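Chapter review. Work through the record for Shikimate kinase before attempting the end-of-chapter questions.
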Amino acid sequence: MARALVFVGFMGAGKSSAARDAAARLGTEPLDADEAIERDAGMSIAALFERDGEAAFREREERVVLELLDAAAEGQPVALGGGALGSARVRDALRSHTVALLEVSEETAWRRAQGGNRPLAQDRDRFAALWAERQDAYEDAADAFLVEGGRGAVVRALPALQQLATAGDGVRMAWATSTGGDYPVWFGAWPDAQGDDVLITDDQVAAAVLGERLVEVPRLTFAAGEEQKTLATAEALWRALASRGATRRTRVVAVGGGVVGDIAGFVAASYQRGIGVVHVPTTIVAQVDSAYGGKTGVDLPEGKNYVGAFHQPQAVHVLHDVLATLPEAERAAGYAEVVKTALIAGGPLWERVRSGVPVDEQTVLACARTKLRVVAADERDGGLRQILNLGHTVGHAIETVTGYARYRHGEAVALGLLAALRLSGLDDLREEVGGLLAEAGLPTRMDAEIDAARVAAATRSDKKRVGEDTPFVLVRAPGDVVFGQHVAAPDLLGAVQELSA
Ligand SMILES: NC(=O)c1ccc[n+]([C@@H]2O[C@H](COP(=O)([O-])OP(=O)(O)OC[C@H]3O[C@@H](n4cnc5c(N)ncnc54)[C@H](O)[C@@H]3O)[C@@H](O)[C@H]2O)c1
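Structure tokens for Shikimate kinase:
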């Protein structure tokens, strides 16, 4: 049977236009389930609903969709209606096709659908409930996730969507969009080596993860650890690239945690004014957060990540297996970023994380998609992206005061999250998050000898500072996080002092 390219998603996600745009690019005709149902019934869907009711409509929809999937040619774009995945037979049939989920927030969906004649878009509460109810079915069926974005994204994603058809079982892809460039994030597939690749990694990753993998790619290795995230390391790498004769066609393959990703990304951003980089994140921190969004850089003694550049990768490859060798303490440090992301996302991701399940592929995928959504809306930190800094203002200050040597980044973020939740006035949530962090082996208290006043003062060297004030990211509730919040100095000091109490 032919493998069609099927667009699914909620009402207003743009499935019909996606199938049309993709078909136009491929020089073929799109198939549209809603149009096929209207042809089959000889009337509009609204009239059909009115005459027969929803149950009869769903029966007809199931039959027509199954026929359509059967009839589709290899790679032919097909748009399904928002409710089609309610049928188990349709969900089953979709397993033999490439399914692309067009993500759309409930707010955007409502803006687009309200006021029309869609039978299920007449009442806002019902609409919102339906949106929430259907997400699981979409996500389970999806091979690809297209973050809500400009219409052109579908056409730009087409080669990656086509590649998915032959990528092998279980490989999934999320399409990242930003003004700085779009790229695929592959889950479950290593990058194919290209002739001009140079691999950058650290010595621990080289030993624990790489082994014989990608041996054909020339390798530049530096010593592991945040202390190495310096201009000196970047210079050594620039010079190693130059002495190897690397050109603007060279592609850096960065295999490692956030330190490797940040340095290798920065080296790629600046070598001969910019060459390509592909990330293969090997820590939880990197898989849920740092590999996406194009922030690269190094630390200065004066402040973390003080020198760097925005440089979007050409692709990211997320492999769950590589986490198997991750030391327990690094796993815990990564968990702090998972909790942060879940607080930002709210909804099912927060419910999943608060239930205490270990970080698995599903959690990593959900965290990555959360980050991609935020970056798509604001690549350069002008606004929304600042919410990703939840827990980081105090976290970075703790790292700065302790010379990046006492705590891992994620450990400092764990402490920072607790301070942020206190400043948010959410005592119960602080308690709950403290429990999750402690369970994962993260610190919930700061060493007594660390001077709280110095930590509070160090928040003023945060890059987000505006004048004398460093804006904070605060939580109103899981899923409702606000940036740019003023915090009074005594409150900040109190929240930091509490950490060492
Ligand atoms: N660019 C961004 O958007 C962004 C976001 C968050 C964090 N960061 C940065 O990320 C850095 C922290 O990243 P990290 O926590 O991944 O630290 P890391 O890169 O230092 O990795 C932690 C340790 O684990 C080792 N390691 C990595 N993968 C392994 C594996 N699979 N098996 C065995 N050992 C492995 C590393 O060699 C290292 O010793 C910080 O510098 C932080 O500023 C950047």
